[in-house]
Amino acid sequence: MSTRYVAIKLLRALVTLWLVVTFVFVVLRLTGNPVEALLAPDAPPEEIAYYTERLGLDEPIHVQYVLYLGSLLTGDLGLSFFDSRPVQQVIGDRIPFTLLLASTALAVAVVVGVSLGIVAALNRNRLVDRLTMAFAVFGFAIPNFFFGILLILIFSLQLRVLPSAGHGTVLHLIMPAATLGLAIAGAFARFTRSSMLEVLNRPYMRAAKAKGVPYRDRVLKHALPNAAIPLVTVLGFSMAGLLAGSIVTETVFAWPGLGRLLVTSVGGRDLAVVQALVILFAAVMVVVNLVVDMLYSVLDPRIRVSAGGEGA
Amino acid sequence: MTTGPTPLSTSAALNPSAWQRLARAPMVVKIAFGFLGLIVFLCLFGDLLTPHAYDKTNLRHRLEPPVFLGGSWDFVLGTDRLGRDLFARLIFGLRVSIAIAILGTAIGAVLGTVIGFLAAHLRGWFEEVTMMLVDFQASLPFIIIALCLLAFFGNSLVLFIVIMGINGWEVYARLSRGVVLSAKAQPYAQAVVSLGADPWRLYTRHVLPNVAGVLIVQFTLNFPLTILLETSLSFLGLGIQPPNTSLGLILGEGRDYLINAPWLAVAPGVMIFLTTLSMSLIGDWLRDELDPTLKRSRDG
After folding, report:
1. Neighbour-count burial of B173, counting CB atoms closer than 10 A to its CB (0-12 exposed, 13-18 middle, 19+ buried)
2. Structural domain tally of chain A?
3. A114-141: string of b/e by CB count within 10 Å (b at 16+)?
4. Which one in A66, B128, B166, B291 has a CA-CA gap of 20 to 30 Å to B265?
5. Is residue B1, in this structure, part of any structural domain at all?
6. Which residues of chain B make contact with A121, given a CB cutoff of 8 A?
């Protein structure tokens, strides 16, 4: 991988991150005095004065900006006014829950989606193919808050086999993970199918057949690895889906993760937490996109040559 | 779409055979069009179908079941916790959701298209900044930006609609910049310019009709996304605020009554799902029909 390619990608990632951080800074200043917004509405004047000075808000705007960047870099994100704890602690408590939920959802979605996509491609235009594509469209169009509620109605209230809310056991994880993973599974099924169809017609597949490679090995060892390369991009935008989906899904199932924290913080206007979460989500997205780009060009050398490719 | 003397425009290509094309469309697309017709009908005339007002409380008839679950014909789809008629509320919520989605998608389409045209025309730093902002917005799930704005500024209907508009602009900006850049290089555009047309005339009279098809397809693809964003935020209680209501808010309120009155959540959910589903099906179909070059490699 050429260093130039890496450098450009890295620079772009940093610019995006800088834009997000600046966006938050500008928008928060547009609302008036951020201290009044960041502190409780009934905060005493001396507290407001203390934070105004501490955050350097009596300084000119460009000095404020530098101070703000500095505090982000040192990880000092302010206090949550709900429980007066440092924001990084409040967020840190929630991270494991979101990691657990999102990774489970992603793993299930990849396994289910890729398998369905392969089966659909091998049975093109037959019933199983149609059903898989219907599943993909269904997964895309159904709002995840509604799908989650349907699951609760069926499995918690009718069949009484799964808990409708909370956390702690594997049973608690099943419905949130299914809700969060549904749309991603659909996307993987769709892209795996079209990617497999493309690969199955390649000359090397005919060569493998002529050579007498068994059907199973042709599909799994010759076609799948090549078809899997474009799926790396799907992995990239799946992360966006996971982040956005976790906001709604965690609220539906009362799952104590970052998404639910964001919703309650927005509802309660706990701006220090909102600000930190937005920057954290953006950082995750930027890193994921960077990794996906790198991975893609490692897996497929052609990308490096013509870096303008649109992907799948 | 107006018919004009624009021989190359997609509207002209579509019009003579629009019905034939529709007749050849897959069954699901026809059903989707049918359902969309029903939605339009309900939006326009739905309130004539029920004697109840959407906000009329009736505490003696709280949480009544729909007629097919043993309720009475007085409240066809049942009532909510305050005895308000669910059917009337659905009609009202549908109107609000559809109106906001149309408004939001339209704002995004116009804003993005204008910026995209400007970027392609002016080039230079304007284009650089535009593309940087496009990349920025595309790199973050929009619901996070929306939540951030709602938290900082506090919720208001105007802000909410503006947010719906900002949601889609970047797709239009990227798309229209791309098509304008390639259209400008076409012989017909160069011919018009050499005949003395100013840029305004070139873009509005010649380039826009030629790229309208692409932009219209994008509208139908963005519309369901806007509905999903609106209903998600309203469902979370961070969008449309009572006493106003939308499909997402009705569903969010119904969530608290899943045990006793599941229809309160299921009915608006089905409405949202079928609306977004039929719009996506129509959008996909239109894209394949109007512009075969954009066709996703769904058939390999």
Report:
1. buried
2. 1
3. bebbbbbbbeeeeeebeebbebbbebbb
4. B166
5. no
6. 300
B177 is in which domain, residue-wise? 29-299
ipTM topping 0.90: no
Q: A84 lies in a domain? A: no
pLDDT tens per residue, range A146-176: 999 999 999 988 888 888 888 878 888 999 9
Query: Which residues on A lie below 8 Å from B258 (Cβ)?
Result: 149, 152-153, 157
Q: Does B178 touch chain A (CB under 8 A)?
A: no
Output the domain CATH number for residue B217. Answer: 1.10.3720.10
* Rounded-to-integer distance, Cα B174 and Cα A255, Å: 37
Q: How far is CA A190 from CA A119, A132, A185, A187, in A?
A: 11, 8, 9, 5
In a domain, A308, yes or no: no
In a domain, B10, yes or no: no
What is the residue range of A167's domain? 93-267
Indicate which CATH number applies to the domain containing A121.
Answer: 1.10.3720.10
Number of domains in chain B: 1
Q: How many angstroms separate the first and last alpha carbons of chain B?
A: 32
pLDDT at A305 over 80: no
Asked, for residue A276, whether it belongs to a domain, the answer is no
Torsion of CA A154, A158, A160, A163, to 10 degrees: 40
Asked if B154 has any chain A CB less than 8 Å from its own CB, the reply is yes
Percentage of chain A surpassing pLDDT 70?
Answer: 91
- Chain A residues near residue B150 by CB distance under 8 angstroms: 266
- Contact in structure between A310 and A304 (CB atoms under 8 Å): no
| B1 band by pLDDT with thresholds 50, 70 and 90 | very low
Of A24, A190, A215, which Cα lies nearest the Cα of A114? A190
CA distances from A226 to A108, A205, A294, A296 (A): 21, 11, 17, 12
Specify if B22 maps to a domain. Answer: no
